């Protein structure tokens, strides 16, 4: 069997690394384990109670992604680094590829399942999402970037209307409207108080959102159709994306200045970038585990809370101008996210009607009246 799949080198000596590609006629065995066998970073969550599983996943999401956001803003706070957002993305893709390769060696089935053409498209979208997002920090405050990331629903709905001819209910439209108004409010506030605000940053993060809205659907379809694993997806999409970015930087002449700058500040660039990439990779693992164990509703709630905490910590740890318009714009975005989650989970989230609220108020008034008479 090992000779058939080209794993002789791996079985005879554990020191060798091998990745084999199956033929089209071979039957694919399931790779993604069930929830009962779920492991995250080597931690077996299957034998733990549900509250313990939830606590570990939430702690992992908050811990790693808060450190991730802090390190990302810390890197761009290095004087002179702002023009090198694409080089940071190149380094990040390189680290993600290595992490994916290492994780793949701990799996029994190392065959690539998803076609190369699909990975080329996913890699292109991933480059657009992360590259444009990192580059936008050269023009925007970090909280503004995070607020934009919370509003993925807007490009998803626009694409659904014009590409697939979808129709959305009043709740979805209201959610998109709240997010849009919140974004406008937050961006206008940023343009008034932020000294480094630039419309280019808004365009970059908006394009990153559009690519992010597409990539989720493509990844989900590819993994379900071909039964690919998370480690395989990370390895191939980020390694191909690494080649894309490297070629772009070489053609545009942006590689030399970035390498020269980072060589002068290796700890503040490569050192921070390593831990930035590592915490991001770990955070993804806990988010996926949260979705598998408790569903998308809980995962969205937790990640939204994490983003809110990231914005608060950003104002605490990094000196930047503040205005209360940030709060009102942010609350509108959060309310839009709540409406979006409620629209998809109406059966699980039964909100009280006006009649229920009225009955409750009358009952409370009656109880208060009786207690006063007694």
TrEMBL record:
It is found in: Membrane. The keyword Transport applies. The keyword Transmembrane helix applies. Keywords: Membrane, Transmembrane, Transmembrane helix, Transport. It comes from the Eukaryota. It is a multi-pass membrane protein. Its main location: membrane. It holds the Pfam family UAA. The chain crosses the membrane at residues 54-72, 84-106, 118-140, 170-188, 194-215, 235-258, 270-290, 297-318, 324-342. InterPro entries: SCL35B1-4/HUT1 (IPR013657). Belongs to the nucleotide-sugar transporter family. SLC35B subfamily. This is Adenosine 3'-phospho 5'-phosphosulfate transporter 2. It comes from Xenoophorus captivus.
